[in-house]
Write a structure and sequence with these properties.
This protein is mainly α. Helix content is about 75%, strand content about 0%. It folds into 2 domains: about 50-390, Sodium/glucose cotransporter; about 405-530, no CATH class. Its main location: membrane.
Length: about 550
């Protein structure tokens, strides 16, 4: 089978759908367009985003094109527990940042990026490590979303892959360029409402088109014992645990999330994150069920490509109206994340690069806005060019994931422990990244003493992840005790076992090594930091803060 097996719209129909979506989104942003934009509003909406917009924006940003295909692939590969592992852990990581987010806001209520806080705490080198990882991650995210648009357009219409990439790039840039983050948040709300409505229609429609619950019940015989097991160890070790570790790093290290943290009104942080947790989990787990349904009906993905599962199911079993709704669903999801990436990169360059390191906290607001918009244009061009090549992005994703994993403990420790130094931060991140690469690409033989040592370091990493979660919700003492106990238990179970699961081993090592180095180097210093300095150094860039609420 090939792409011709998919239902295809005419060129005119697809262009009309895209014009309606991006044209409507652009018209929506005209409601907030100002003749003279405000830099703080452009980056974080003056820290005054309300509960509804904040929760919707957080959910829409977390759901990107890869969520659709990844959740379906997980359901098709691991069976019943697959969608739960993909959606549940991603949802919990939105909730995880909440307790630490409150600390970030308390230390730097006027911050626009997490990098500004780290700059005030440690200086330029630590800040630029965080900023660089965010820019690289956002470029890759843009490329993934534009690639998804190109693939969708080429599959469902006569248009080329490159045409789909360019249309998505121009469309997203058109409505984000002028008002920045404010436009991203407003359109996220509309896009999420559309995504929820379409998902609620499409998922049951596919199920009943397949023959209803009875057909799925009969399809249970096609599942292997592991796929039929809700507590499948295969799914936990190959999908659940690595994803759990990865999204934790994403929650702390990514500017698209921290930008919303700094934008939401401080008294609305808790309900915003709880609502986004529930919304993300419900939508993504539901989409993963389409992959499970494909498995239970014995469907084979076209050309062996798992990314074809959802388009294939929708194309084969639903009417053209539903296929059109699915088209809008995917375009909405990738656009909501792409505009967040553009807003994140513009804020990083405006605040971290220009505001702190070039203008030394005395920037020209007009020049700052120009730099932010120029960043968006350049980032879009890079994303479109890279997406047009249909590149294999796995290697870059591996490095970004490792960098964010190595950053998690140093960032959190820097905001709670006054002994952490700039040297401790940078050396911890570098050591964590290096050891991750050694383990992930098996640069040394994974046998004997070496494998045992790596497994013990990974056990430390697992204890750090669980300890940080306990610390966030239950306090420092509980977190330290729980993390230490988990490390001991994991060391017992991981030894001689984890070496066979390279991805999980390497990811946990990034946490473990960076934590040990950060603590060790910090203890060598006797200096103590005054956290009150952070609020003095992190400022709003416009002289007058508007009273108008976002």
């Amino acid at each position: 089978m090939n792409e011709e097996s998919f239902y295809q719209f005419s060129t005119l129909t697809v262009l009309a759908l895209l014009a309606a979506f991006y044209g409507g989104t652009y018209l929506l942003t005209l409601l907030i367009k100002k003749k003279k934009e405000n830099t703080d509003a452009f980056m974080v909406s003056n820290h005054q985003i309300g509960f509804g917009l904040g929760a919707a924006s957080m959910t829409a940003t977390w759901i990107w094109a890869a969520s659709f295909y990844g959740a379906a692939t997980s359901g098709y590969t691991y069976g019943i527990s697959g969608p739960l592992h993909y959606g549940l852990w991603g949802a919990l990581m939105i909730l995880f940042i909440y307790p630490f987010g409150r600390r970030f806001r308390k230390l730097a209520p006027n911050a626009h990026t997490l990098g500004e806080l780290i700059h005030a705490r440690h200086g330029s080198s630590s800040q630029l490590i965080l900023a660089s990882s965010n820019i690289l991650g956002s470029i890759i995210s843009l490329m993934v979303n534009f690639t998804a648009s190109g693939a969708l357009v080429s599959v469902l219409s006569p248009l080329s892959f490159q045409a789909g990439v360019v249309i998505a790039g121009v469309g997203v840039l058109s409505y984000t360029l002028w008002s920045g983050f404010r436009a991203s948040v407003l359109t996220d709300f509309a896009q999420l409402m559309a995504m929820m409505a379409v998902a609620i229609l499409i998922i049951p429609a596919v199920m009943f088109a397949l023959g209803g619950p009875q057909t799925l019940s009969d399809g249970m015989s096609l599942l292997t014992p592991e796929q039929a097991n809700l507590f499948s160890m295969d799914a936990i070790l190959n999908q659940g645990a690595p994803f759990f570790v990865a999204v934790l790093a994403y929650a702390i290290g990514n500017q698209t999330i921290s930008q919303r943290l700094f934008a939401v009104r401080e008294d609305h942080i808790k309900p915003t994150f709880i609502t986004a947790t529930i919304g993300y989990g419900a939508i993504v787990i539901g989409l993963g069920m389409i992959g499970l349904m494909a498995l239970m009906t014995g469907m084979e993905p076209i050309d062996g490509d798992m990314n074809n599962l959802i388009p294939q199911m929708v194309s084969m079993y639903l009417s053209p109206v539903f296929i059109g709704l699915f088209f809008i669903l995917v375009i909405g999801s990738l656009s909501s994340t792409a505009d967040s990436d553009l807003s994140a990169m513009s804020a990083i360059v405006m605040a971290d690069v220009y505001g702190k390191n070039i203008a030394k906290n005395k920037p020209d607001p007009t020049k700052m806005l120009f730099i932010g918009r120029l960043t968006m244009i350049i980032a879009t061009l890079i994303g479109v060019i890279l997406a047009s090549f249909s590149m294999d992005i796995l290697i870059m994703l591996v490095f970004v994931g490792a960098l964010w994993g190595a950053i998690v403990f140093p960032v959190i420790a820097s905001c709670f422990w006054d002994r952490v130094t700039n040297k401790a931060f940078t050396s911890a991140v570098i050591a964590g990244l290096v050891m991750f690469c050694v383990a992930r690409f098996e640069l040394v033989p994974m046998v004997g003493v070496t494998a045992g040592l790596f497994e013990l370091l990974a056990a430390v990493g697992g204890g750090v992840v669980l300890g940080l979660m306990a610390f966030g919700f239950c306090g420092r003492r509980v977190g330290v005790v729980f993390g230490a106990l988990c490390t001991i238990v994991l060391a017992y179970f991981c030894f001689g076992f984890l070496r066979d699961y390279t991805v999980l081993l390497a990811s946990l090592m990034a946490y473990g090594v960076s934590t040990l180095v950060c603590i060790g180097v910090s203890l060598l210093s006797s200096s103590k930091f005054d956290f009150a300095q952070i609020n003095q150094d992190v400022i709003n860039y416009d002289p007058v803060k508007p009273a108008v609420q976002a």
